[in-house]
Amino acid sequence: MTQAPRSAAHSAAPTDSNASARPTVPLIWAIAALVVAVVLALTFPAWERSVPFGVELAASYGLTWLPLIIALIATALFWRQYLGFRPVDIYLGLMVGVVARAVGIIVQFFVTGSLPSSGIFIGGITGVYVFTAVIAPVILAPLIEEPFFRGLLQGSLGRFLTPWTSLIITSVIFTLVHTIADGWSWTLVVEMLVYALLAGYVVQQTKRIASAIIGHAAFNGLATLINWPW
Question: What angle in degrees, to the nearest 10, is found between the helix axes of 186-206 and 88-112?
Answer without folding.
Answer: 160
